[in-house]
Amino acid sequence: MTGAVAAVAMADFRDRSRRPAFLVTVLGAVALGYVAVPPVSATYAMVKVGSFRGLYDSAYIGMLLAMIGSLWLPLFGFYVVRSSIARDILTSVGETLSASPLRTSMYLLGKYLSNLAVLAAMAAALALIAPVMQLLRGESTSLDMTALWLPIVLFCLPVLTVAAAAAVVFETVPLLRGGAGNILWFFVYPSMFLAGIPLVYGSITAGFQADLATQHPGMDDEISIGFTAEPGALGQFTWSGMDIDTTLVAASAGLIAASTIVAILPSLWFGRFDPARWQRTPSHVSAAPATEAPVAPAFSQSPRTLSPAERGQSFPGLLLGEVRIHLGSVSRWWWLTLAIVTITALAVPADRVGTALLFAWLLPVLLWSRLGTLTYEQGVAPLVQCGVSSRIRLIAEWGAGVLTAVIAGVGPLVKMLLAADATGVAAWVAGATVIPALALLIGSIGRTARVFQAVYLLIWYAVLNGVAAVDVMGVLRTDGSLGGPSPLLSFGVSAVLIAATVLVQEIRHARR
I need a labelling partner for 275 at 20 to 30 A (CA). Which of 118, 228, 338, 394 fits? Predict the structure, then answer.
């Protein structure tokens, strides 16, 4: 059975590594390594102790990248690896495997190892950029490869096993298989990471604080890991390095063992590719990976093409149909939550309405993520394309996303109107146009909902943490003025995104 597990893992990893998305994933890890070691003049920090950071030597950069990798690689790597079982369903490989003597636990173990291999490739890219960043920053030119890479092996790789196991579990639980699971992971994993810092990094953070106290007595020593905006350059201290002991090694090994057990636990309920179980997934939740699209039905003859006049007359009905399709899939609990958020937005003080809007526009993320993807997920793209101009259809789909934003954000909008907040209203309108435009472009390119979900949640998280550069909603204010892009700029970005979506569609049509 060991050979069968290895065969499943290797076959799956080879298939993934040949896809363009794998290269994008590895390059993303390299970009993370570059951003994680900011220059002296940077106005942000990824890891800091009070208002200080460590000197950029091998020991500190290695630990810095291990910490940042432990947070961001599992968080976003989860979205990369979680389609493995769904791909077997889509390609009918699962049916073949179900007839083989391979046990369910061994199949799940192979998928877990394949997920881990992809995530480990991201960690390897992070390790390779480590010496480059040390030399690039130029604070220490003495390279110690053990100090640079050992923290990634001891800390980052074990944490990646958590994401690899979670991806397997989420794919085998119907309620977590779709977009709801994606949203849940984005909030659950950071909470798990913060709760685990004392256990995983307790000795490291204690060493940071002790060295800071020795070199800069009386300074604030609160540890921050993630992303924080800074008014200026941080101070420096020299970290004495990591002490390796049996407890640290045992903790890493224990985390790997626990993740492995969790990965095979779904064998207790996983249905061995029973079609009846997978058909319970709601129709709007796609099990297809990003690189696959359902096979569309063939046509024996071409349907009648609508005239320009007929296409123009059909637009209102098309727009209404798009709205019904998207909002018709939500549950009564969604509407109840929206009602609570709307009432809260009307009740909060005027200076807090931006925060209410931020949470109001978190609700439609699963609906927006379907823009540009739904016709391909349902296998009806040829039917839609034959009846209506692709450009008109895209505009109608974008319009449905805008109307969804209006419905979700009506509470904050009314509050701004009552307060005569013209600046906030302008930013609200701009945000209602640019967010669906972004979703439409991402969905048209990737034909999967997961990518926009991850991108939008990252933007949402950045705004929540005060990053004004991506605040297209007008949440962040300084003395009443918008901290983020102007509404006019956001309108321009919306136009560019829609034009880019049209171009993507034209290129696809030209290739047929």
Answer: 118
Structural contact between residues 99 and 88, judged by C-beta atoms closer than 8 angstroms: no
pLDDT tens sequence for the chain (512 residues): 577 788 878 888 888 888 777 888 889 899 999 999 999 888 888 999 999 999 999 999 999 999 999 999 999 899 888 888 877 777 777 667 666 777 888 889 999 999 999 999 999 999 999 999 999 998 998 999 999 999 999 999 999 999 999 999 999 988 888 788 888 998 899 889 988 888 888 889 999 999 999 999 989 889 998 888 788 888 999 999 988 888 888 889 999 999 999 999 998 888 766 555 545 444 344 333 333 333 333 333 333 444 444 444 567 777 887 888 878 878 888 899 999 999 999 999 988 898 899 999 999 998 998 888 876 665 545 545 555 667 788 888 899 999 999 999 999 999 999 999 999 999 999 999 999 999 999 988 877 788 888 889 889 988 888 888 889 998 888 877 888 899 999 999 999 999 999 888 888 777 66
The pTM score is: 0.75
- The whole-angstrom distance between residue 296's C-alpha and the CA centroid of its chain comes to 28
CA atoms within 13 A on the CB side of 121: 20
Residue 20's Cβ-count burial label (10 Å; 0-12, 13-18, 19+) is exposed
The owner of tokens 């999967």 is: 448
Bridge partner residues of 54 (DSSP): 237
Sorted by sequence, the CB contacts under 8 Å of residue 202 that are 6+ apart come out as none
409 close to 360: Cβ distance less than 8 angstroms? yes
